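Chain A, query sequence.
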Amino acid sequence: MATTINENARLHSWEGIYEPTEAASYLKASARSEDIVPFDSTKLIRWIRRGLANPELVEVPGRDILIDFEDLISMRVISTLKSAGMNWPAIYEAEKWLREMTGLRQPFATESLWAGQGDVFTEWGDRLVSGNRRGQTGLELIRKYLIPIHGLVFHEESHRAASWEPAQDVLLQPAVQFGAPCVKGTRIPTKALMGMIEAGDSEEWVAQSYNLSVSTVRAACDWESRIQSQ
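Chain A, predicted structure.
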């Protein structure tokens, strides 16, 4: 039976839960959005249908789909891999092999990845290996020519993605404000700052109210403006 919207939310305890349109806007607004393939919620849902997010979501109606933080990160990784010239068979094979080896449903959100020479590389122990070639060792000398994919912070023990910094001074953490974009190092949603500016408050007053720098307030508002323009 397909997972309903309420069941899906319950499974993830409301930590980092996103609607497809919301997730797509974050991906498009990220600081390196020029490095990912053209992206919208329709494409995100199509990738979910291919099983590249939580497998339980494959049959869920589009209007009921919610994805979690690891799904969001996986979509970001896949977008960057596609922009790096990776084809779908290589992406599928790398994801399948990593899922088998780690036992995790979203290995793209738990492993540091690099792209290059038609392969998806990761570190396995002290070796650089190709995921789409099922663990074939890559020569260490090619590392400097590979494209890093993540730009994430991982939990030291679980290796799961702990946070994503999509723009300067903006951070998404699944357990902070339900995964909403916040000012880095705080629990202040960027949307709250933008709301105050739109209501007529000055950048200086907002900065003073939250003990932030004016440049940080501007960075938060710039991020929100990019989201709104999507």
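The helical segments are 5-11, 20-29, 41-49, 69-83, 88-102, 190-198, 203-210, 214-228. Residues 69-83 form the longest helix (15 residues).
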